[in-house]
Amino acid sequence: MRDSVDVTTLLEKYTLNFLTSLLENKKQKKVLSKGKILEMARLFCIIEIVSKNLKDNMHSTLRQIFYTNPQLFISQKVSNVTIGKLTKIVKIPRELLNIYNSPKGIIRGNVFLREKNSSPWVDCMSIFETRGHLICPFGVSDIKISPDVKYVLIVEKETIFFRLLQSDFISNYGPCIMITARGFPDLNTRQLLYEIRRCNAGLKIFCLTDYDAYDVDDVSIDNLCWLNLFPPEEGLQKKVLKDIDISKLTLRDIRMLDNFCETVKSSSKFRASEIIAWTEYANHMKTSGVKYEVDAIQDIEEHLSRRIGELL
């Protein structure tokens, strides 16, 4: 991995080469187009931000960079494209230029985080952030997990996450750490999960998703326990699901399940027991031929707590 000095040297070298080429163009009486001038202005604006970030050990999100000069960039898409051009020029990923995605995931629970770009500890059970704390896009430098935390619960859907918070799930059925990736987990959320795992390797990590092919594929992460609260037929029998909540698997769903099984079997990161468990989940879903959204489950808090208790 290159350090900040190497990156700064590359940026300075590129700037020097560009200025030299401008002088040569002037001698040859070549005129730059307005579009080219704008493109170069945007690029050097990004270079200035990156240089300052590296010098001061600071970080910026893609959104923050756009707002440094919205008149120049016009839209975030334009600033993102410019950042992409710079990474190709210096042949370094943007994370090493201290540029990150905007925060997406949310965390709430009995854990303290020390985030990069920030010195104080963040209390993830703060009374000032009752709807959770946005996961820092720059990563965490340290983490303290309360010794009485029983497990980590990843919730795919933001609506279910807030529903559990509203019912005071953490206090009533924890203590635990709850995280929502608001869909497919981004890099920041995965990095935080890695840090939690590194801090406490014995902590169980559960994942609550819809009962469908997309979400089986989403949670195919090592050492993760997928919470299958109810197979469709059991949910109907116990009247926690209704007929209207169930829909048929499509051909695309079935193909995804087949591909998922092949991926799990051929992957070296899964243990034999995990391969068997994941394959059974996928095959059972195929056999049932149906899917449902977890939002449909009535009294989900109680069923969720019971299922987690069985697996702890």
UniProtKB/TrEMBL annotation:
Give start and end of each Topoisomerase 6 subunit A/Spo11 TOPRIM domain: 151-301
Q: Where is the Spo11/DNA topoisomerase VI subunit A N-terminal domain?
A: 40-99
What are the GO BP annotations of this UniProt entry?
meiotic DNA double-strand break formation; meiotic DNA double-strand break processing; reciprocal meiotic recombination
Q: Does the keyword Magnesium apply?
A: yes
Single GO term (MF): DNA binding
Q: Which InterPro entries match?
A: Spo11/TopoVI_A, Spo11/TopoVI_A_N, Spo11/TopoVI_A_sf, TOPRIM_Topo6A/Spo11, WH-like_DNA-bd_sf
Give the matching SUPFAM superfamilies: DNA topoisomerase IV, alpha subunit (SSF56726)
**EC annotation from Swiss-Prot or TrEMBL:** 5.6.2.2
Presence of the UniProt keyword Metal-binding in the record: yes
Domain of life, per lineage = Eukaryota
Which keywords fit this entry according to its UniProt record? Answer: DNA-binding, Isomerase, Magnesium, Metal-binding, Topoisomerase
Its GO CC terms? nuclear chromosome
The cofactors it requires, by name, are:
Mg(2+)
Record family assignment: Belongs to the TOP6A family.
Return the protein name: DNA topoisomerase (ATP-hydrolyzing)
Q: Which organism is it from?
A: Plasmodium vivax (strain Salvador I)
